[in-house]
Structures are given as C-alpha cells and as structure tokens.
Amino acid sequence: MSGHSKWSTIKRKKGAIDAKRGKIFTKIIKEIIIAAREGGSDAESNARLRLAIQNAKGANMPKDNIERAIKKATGADAASYLETTFEGYAPHGIAVFIECLTDNNNRTVAAVRSSFNKYGGNLGTNGSLSFLFERKGIFTIKNEGFSLEDLELEMIEAGAQSIDLDGDTVTITCAKEDFGNVNKKLIELGIEPEEAGLKRIPNDTKKLDVESGKKVLKFIDILEDDDDIQFVYHNLEMTDELAAALE
C-alpha cells in the first residue's frame, strides 16, 4: 500500500532547511503546557498530553524539559494560551492556513497581519479557505529494520490510507477518525513515531516557477519563525526544481 503523500512532499523535503531546534522545542513545550493545563498532568489519562510528550521525544527533547513544562502547566503562574487560526493567500495565490497558540492574541494578530502585508499576501476571514484542506492523521517514523510488508498489513488493518517511503523515513496517512486506531497499533508494535498529529493536508497543490516558489517559502519561513505560530499549512507543490533550488 504505497502511495504519494502530499504531506511528505510539501513538508519533509523542506524540513532540513526549516529545522531550528530551539523553535521546535518552544512550540512543543507550549503544546505540552496547554495539554496538561486542560486535561491534567497524567499522560495515561490525557491523550493530548501523551501525544505531545510523544512528539517531544521524537524531536529529542530532554526529559527534564518535558517535566518542567508539565510542572509549569499545573503551577499557579502557568501561562494561559489561546488556540486561534488564520487563513489567507500567500503571494501568487498560494493558500495558507495558520494554527497558533498564544498568550497575547493582539500581538499575534498584529504580527500575522504585518507579515501578510509585507510579503504581498492577503489575509482572509476564518473559514474562507478551510475547504481547501482536509484534516488527516500523519505519522512520521524511522525505518529501523522492521518489515515494511508486515507494517503495511498492520496499518491497513488499523485504517491507514497510504504509506509513503522516502529514504529511511516512513509517512503513514489516515483519516482523522482513524488517528487513534493507528496510533494505538504503532504503540502495540513498539514503534514510536518521530512526529504524530492531525495535520491539514491540501486537497490539491499548485505549481509555481522556482523564483515565485522561493518567494512564497520565504513568506512561510517568516510565519514559522513566530513563536506564537505552531503550524503553517499551504498548497504549494514542492517540485524537484524548487527543492533543488533550496539546497
């Protein structure tokens, strides 16, 4: 059950360029804090916290950092984060969906609006672009010697829609409703994903020439550098030519 994964094409080829460990840790810590604050500090009974810790481990976050984040969430001075989203168009008509966790919504709104204005984008109203994206479960795991054929059979049974192999990285995609089943099956198999979560996958992608594509990716980089922004989804197709130009 191999297949083309739009998520891996759009995201992973650019991952090495975007990987800034400090920024990644900041975003994961905020997710741990809000998960623990809303559902308690016991990961066994708090699915969201359990997933956040799983992603922290996948990013090689030290155990002490994880424990401090959980303690911070349950303390009297814990920050209160608001979950909010923005939708709009990047330059050249590329659709962008932004998910945020912020302790100051006015600051976040101003920063996002400024980025759209500065780089020639167009910030829309909430719900205006949601039809362009579908929420799917995405699991990224390292191929560490297990049988891909056996994994494929187990994942099909759990509800996986596609399995994409790129080098030593395996990306499993499933419907939103099957996320829990696939995650549970991976745990049963003793496989810990590097990253797992519900992602917004574009229903269709849009190709641009290299220079236009680089301009869009610069804009997306600016957004991703903002500590208030957790994820930026877009429908730009990462062509081989564009990927090569970024190396």
Short description:
By secondary structure, the protein is α+β, with helices and mostly antiparallel strands. 46% of the residues lie in helices and 23% in strands.
Topology:
Layout: H1 6-18, H2 21-39, H3 47-58, H4 63-74, E1 82-89, E2 95-102, H5 105-118, E3 122-123, E4 133-142, H6 148-158, E5 160-166, E6 169-175, H7 179-188, E7 195-202, H8 210-224, E8 229-234, H9 240-246
Portion of residues in beta strands equals 15-25%
Helix and strand string, N-terminal first? HHHHEEHEEHEEHEHEH
> CATH H-level name of the largest domain... which superfamily?
YebC, transcriptional regulation domain
How many discrete structural domains?
Answer: 3
- CATH top-level class of the largest domain: Alpha Beta
Helical fraction equals 40-55%
| Class based on secondary structure composition and strand pairing | alpha+beta
Keywords:
single chain, alpha+beta, Arc Repressor Mutant, subunit A, Alpha-Beta Plaits, four-stranded antiparallel β-sheet, globular, disordered N terminus
Description of the molecule:
It is a single chain. With 247 residues, the chain is α+β, with helices and mostly antiparallel strands. It has helices spanning 6-18, 21-39, 47-58, 63-74, 105-118, 148-158, 179-188, 210-224, 240-246; strands spanning 82-89, 95-102, 122-123, 133-142, 160-166, 169-175, 195-202, 229-234. The longest helix has 19 residues, at 21-39. The strands form 2 sheets. A 4-stranded antiparallel sheet has the order 3-1-2-8. Strands 5-6-4-7 form a 4-stranded antiparallel sheet, sandwiched between helices. Mean pLDDT is 86; it is low at 1-5. The chain is built from 9 helices and 8 strands. The chain has 3 domains: 18-74, Arc Repressor Mutant, subunit A, CATH 1.10.10; 83-131 and 203-246, YebC, transcriptional regulation domain (Alpha-Beta Plaits), CATH 3.30.70; 132-202, YebC, transcriptional regulation domain (Alpha-Beta Plaits, 2-Layer Sandwich). The two termini are 30 Å apart.
